[in-house]
Amino acid sequence: MARAHHDGYAASAAEHQFAQLLLRGHGLRCTAPRLAVLSALASARDRGHLTVAQIRDEVTAAGHDVDLTTVYRTVSTLVGASVLHALVVDERVTSYGLTDTPHHHAVCTRCGAIDEVPAAKLSTALDAARAGSRFALPDSAGLTLHGLCPACQHH
């Protein structure tokens, strides 16, 4: 049985199965830390990307005894295997997100909140970037947009 997070997070059977399939699909073993990290990120999709400290908080709140060093190593392995991607917003904070669905990022210039924008919504922008650049930009090229999140728009 999954343990509840203090904010309602509980690693559901679906999230656990998703994590297993994702790891196996990338040729990785299903270790407890990897499953816990991926389950936490899957459950936090509606909040965007998470920092290593936030991931550890989610994993710990779910009842797993994982230290910060283990989370760093796990995240590093998963980024190296292209299961996760790292997003560095302002050189101070790196957050991590799943790579299973193509997306770009909108970042709040006031509070730093990150929202995922489906890649299909920005396909013409990526085409324009290709046309206006000498770079070869693959479909997986990441666009980062900066603006104000809904909460900051009202302050």
Describe this structure in words.
- The structure is a single chain.
- With 155 residues, the protein is of the alpha+beta class.
- Strands 4-3-5 form a 3-stranded mixed sheet, with no helix packed on it.
- β1 (84-88) and β2 form a beta hairpin.
- 39% of the residues lie in helices and 16% in strands.
- Residues 1-10 have low confidence and may be disordered.
- The longest helix has 13 residues, at 13-25.
- The chain starts with 12 loop residues before the first helix and ends with a helix.
- It is built from 6 helices and 5 strands, in the order ααααββββαβα.
Strand content: 15-25%
Secondary structure class reads alpha+beta
Rg over CA atoms: 17 Å
N-end to C-end Cα span:
41 Å
- Uncertain runs are 1-10
Helix content range: 25-40%
- Sketch the major β-sheet: 3 strands, mixed
Spell out the helices and strands N to C: HHHHEEEEHEH
User: What would the average pLDDT be, to the nearest integer?
Assistant: 83
Strand order of the largest sheet: 4-3-5
- Shape verdict: globular
Number of strands: 5
- Total of helices: 6
Question: What is the strand and helix layout of this fold?
Answer:
Elements: H1 13-25, H2 32-43, H3 52-61, H4 68-80, E1 84-88, E2 94-98, E3 103-108, E4 114-118, H5 123-131, E5 144-147, H6 150-153
Parallel strand pairs: 3-5
Antiparallel strand pairs: 1-2, 3-4
Helix pairs in contact: 1-2, 2-3, 3-4
